[in-house]
């Protein structure tokens, strides 16, 4: 059994991976407008800065900066985003008794993976990982070709060139964002498997 603890750092910056229960689904990109609406609603109610984000068919990656000095509650924000998105969709046909008991539609994996960003170098590595992820998963050949990414904001703000993310980027990005030991990216293991 895992011992999952969250790093509560008021005003901290965090990397997240949030995943659908069905890893073969394209629900997030199919329902991108619904997800954007739910995300924006929660962001208005419980403010946070989206430093970077990339939406893929079955999961998303984000870096958030929480407002200082007292706010460290990213778990509630993700719970609300996931719940609102789920309310807009019919339940999956096949749900475990546990999902039924907890009144879950079976759309999302229950947990998510987070990493506390330590410094500017760590932030750069995770933002690069997020932006390169569609290429890594074989969804596009060029980062600029993926429409569901903050990469386009970074280009328009002059932070990255439009041609960023060529073949050399995969070596720069490396395995940042991957869970240690090949564990599911939806779990945070504090005491090993």
Structure description:
The structure is a single chain. The chain has a single domain (13-177), classed as Alpha-Beta Plaits, CATH 3.30.70.1290. 34% of the residues lie in helices and 13% in strands. The protein is built from 7 helices and 4 strands; from the N terminus they run E-H-H-E-E-H-H-E-H-H-H. The model is unreliable at 179-193 (pLDDT under 50).
Q: Tell me the series of helices and strands, N- to C-terminal.
A: EHHEEHHEHHH
Number of helices: 7
Would you state the CATH class? Alpha Beta
Strand content: 5-15%
Strand order of the largest sheet: 2-3-1-4
Number of strands: 4
Mean of all residue-level pLDDT scores: 83
Spatial gap, N to C terminus: 8 Å
Which architecture per CATH?
2-Layer Sandwich
The CATH topology annotation reads as Alpha-Beta Plaits
- Which percent range fits the helix content? 25-40%
Describe the main β-sheet briefly: 4 strands, antiparallel
Structurally, the number of domains stands at 1
CATH superfamily: Transposase IS200-like
Radius of gyration over alpha carbons? Answer: 17 Å
Pick out the low-confidence regions.
179-193
What is the structural class? Answer: alpha+beta
What's the overall geometry?
Answer: globular
């Amino acid at each position: 059994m895992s011992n999952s603890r969250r790093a509560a750092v008021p005003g901290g910056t965090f990397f997240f991976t949030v995943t659908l229960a069905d890893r073969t689904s394209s629900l997030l990109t199919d329902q991108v407008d619904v997800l954007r609406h739910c995300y924006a609603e929660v962001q208005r109610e419980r403010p946070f800065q989206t430093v970077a984000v990339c939406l893929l068919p079955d999961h998303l990656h984000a870096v958030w900066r929480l407002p200082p000095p007292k706010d460290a509650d990213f778990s509630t924000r993700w719970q609300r985003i996931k719940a609102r998105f789920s309310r807009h969709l019919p339940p999956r046909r096949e749900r475990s008794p546990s999902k039924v008991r907890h009144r879950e539609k079976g759309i999302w994996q229950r947990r998510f993976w987070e990493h506390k960003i330590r410094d500017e170098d760590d932030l750069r590595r995770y933002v690069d990982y997020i932006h390169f992820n569609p290429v890594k998963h074989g969804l596009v050949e060029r980062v600029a070709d993926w429409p569901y990414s903050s990469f386009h904001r970074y280009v328009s703000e002059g932070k990255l060139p439009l041609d960023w993310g060529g073949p050399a980027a995969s070596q720069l990005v490396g395995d940042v964002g991957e869970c240690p030991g090949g564990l599911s990216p939806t779990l945070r293991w504090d005491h090993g498997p």
